[in-house]
Amino acid sequence: MTRVLTLNLQHGLSRSGRPTTAEELGAAVAGLDADVVALQEVDRGQPRSGGVDQARVVADALGLEHVRFAATLAGDVRRAKVSPDRWGAHDGAGYGLALASRWPVVSWFVRPLPRLPVRYPVLREGRPALRDDERRGVLAAVLATPSGLLSVASAHLSLLAPVAAVQVRALLRSVATLSTPAVVAGDLDLDPWLLGPLARGWQLPQAPTFPAAAPRRQLDHVLVQGAPVVAVEALDLPVSDHRGLLVTLDRR
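Given the sequence above, the corresponding structure tokens read:
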């Protein structure tokens, strides 16, 4: 069996919205039985989260030796948000995606995803404002598991459903070029009824994940191709405004 967890970490905020220490973050996920973890909204070296490498904290708490962070935004996100010079390769403070694995990594892959090139109108504190479509991307790995190669990708898609639909198509095309079985995990910001037609040929395990306190929607997904899904569970954790989604694959 292979257990894959996806979690929008909300940069480690507690359920009440309070920043957590490294010790509190580790304790929030400790004891979870997962072989592979895909994280989104991850801070590294950010002053707002105490300069913690959150991907490493989560990986260490779960006993996962192999971990990588990929920045979608570089620098202090409280100030001007700039993209890395080479996407995903920024070495300093950043915010973005992570993958952690129990098994060795044969190869890593990072790539940006298309986004809306212009600002779009939103209401901010009851007043109209313009907002940038945040930079999005995918961090993927091919893992050498005891049952053979497994491709896994972590992604966080646009809040705008039409843009997220374009992104998920590009994401699935990219992962399809890797080995199978394959898993695409993350906060895809699409409900199952929207995602299903875009992901034909992929299994779509379902369980509500958002908002965490009383979930009514499923925005977090673990899409699977090439291995049967035998269990799915939405995990109520002490961190984040999303529930974690844990999916078990039978790879015998």
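The longest helix spans residues 161-175. Try to locate this feature in the token string yourself.
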